[in-house]
Amino acid sequence: MRPDKLKELLARVRDGSVSLDDALEELARLPFADLGHTVVDHHRALRTGFPEVVLGEFKTAGQISAIVAERAKAGDNVLVTRVDPETAAAVCADVEGVEHRPEARSLVLLQAPIEHTGAGPIAVVTAGTSDLPVAEEAALTAEMAGNEVVRVNDVGVAGVHRLLHRLEDLRRASVIVVVAGMEGALPSVVGGLVSCPVVAVPTSVGYGASFNGVTALLGMLSSCAAGVTVVNIDNGFGAGYAASLINRVGHQP
Length: 253
What we know:
With 253 residues, the chain is α/β, with parallel strands linked by helices.
């Protein structure tokens, strides 16, 4: 249950349009629902301001469908990450209203308007086209959390003039997520050009000595640019969520 929905319910109890018994029945699902294979956290949005996000990887289509259907009862918007196309098709067929966002390898169920609460735009920057799936996961997460997202794609250090061409977009952003594989140099370059926080995402893009993203991770952790923080390898969701938290500090209702 979202904070605004709870406030609405309490207001209806106060004005007498909803009885105490009906309100108690409505609240009976809080704080969680036990589905056997999953315990769905209906209380998450009240505690953190953002509903629980479902990791689809390693879950069956049936498990995901059950979780999404349970979350739908609360009227929440739902985000499911790391879903392969076959599983996504099965869930979309099983639960009405679910949409597949293949570019982000995600599923969404939109039941309520998304209120923009961010202090300003979040820029999601990719070094190369191969980094797009992770970047789109970050961008979708930030959008679902109520942020305007500006995408700046394929501007890696092998052709840094492409990045400088988008400098205005970077400097307009409140927070920047930078997604890069290979040697992971792009966040340092971006961090040296802007005054806002930079969230760096190493990806497993690369071969040989890139060690499935470890080289990019270590490079980003060793950045000489101040204000660069780093999430785990391929963790687009974590970057989008962290950027959203940074962007809403001091701007919550």
